[in-house]
Amino acid sequence: MAHKNELNSLQVKNLLRYFIDNNVKLAGKGKMPIAIEIEGMPGTAKTSVVKQIGDELQYHFVRLNLSEIEVCDLVGLPTYEYKICKNAGKKDEECLWVSDKVLGHYIAMGFTALNEHRTSYSKPSWIQGKEDRPVLLTLDDYNRVTPMMANACMTLIDEQKYISWGLPKGSTIVLTCNPSDQDFMVQQEDSAQATFD
User: Fold this and answer.
1) Inter-residue contact 73 to 156 (CB < 8 Å)
2) Interatomic CA distance for residues 185 and 73, integer angstroms
3) Is residue 3 part of a domain?
4) Are residues 60 and 128 in the same domain?
């Protein structure tokens, strides 16, 4: 189990900056970034410190309160895609999967809709438009999630992607928690959650 230290806000900020800088280096080497967990009493500025450093680094700051959302909020909305081809069956055939929203546009450009379709998922609204620079994703109340949400979060933490979308290169995930030894309604973390190995 990971060792827990008590730090003040400035120390937390410096530690976060170290992890963020390290994650940029890891991403540059094609390695997965490391998530960091901050545990503290409510009102001790855990989320504020993360937002402050995100603003200083000009990262997109996204905060998800995990006790208030469901797994579908991580997945995104279902969309229907259709397979279309230009010059079908010829050497220069070009085929794409497009959503029903742009199908007419591609047909007008000379593509033919085939009789193939599939269900896909759009990016969740909270990540759309944030592909241009790294994201500092704060998962608040990490130890207050349901088991299903905990599994979804572990995938996101391990892979920096979930189902149909991924975080931009160089992004960092920060988890915030309330202490499990206090009078809060929290879930005990298992060893995989505590160490992120």
Assistant:
1) no
2) 22
3) no
4) yes
pLDDT in tens, 91-146: 888 999 999 889 999 999 999 999 999 998 888 999 999 999 999 999 999 988 88
- Could you give the C-alpha distances from 22 to 15, 25, 32, 94, in angstroms and in order? 11, 5, 11, 41
Distance CA 178, CA 180 (A): 6
Contact indicator for 139, 174 with CB cutoff of 8 Å: yes
Distance CA 70, CA 149 (A): 7
Dihedral angle sign, alpha carbons of residues 162, 166, 167, 170: positive
Encoded amino acid at 192, one letter: A
On whether residue 176 sits in a domain, the answer given is: yes
Q: What is the pLDDT of residues 55-66, one digit of tens each?
A: 999 999 999 999
16, part of any domain:
yes
Query: The domain spanning residue 68 has which CATH number?
Result: 3.40.50.300
Say how far apart CA 191 and CA 158 lie, in whole Å: 14
Note down the domain range covering 156: 10-74+124-195
% of the chain at pLDDT higher than 70: 89
The burial of 92, by beta-carbon neighbours within 10 Å (0-12 exposed, 13-18 middle, 19 or more buried), is given as exposed
Place of tokens 């009102």: 43
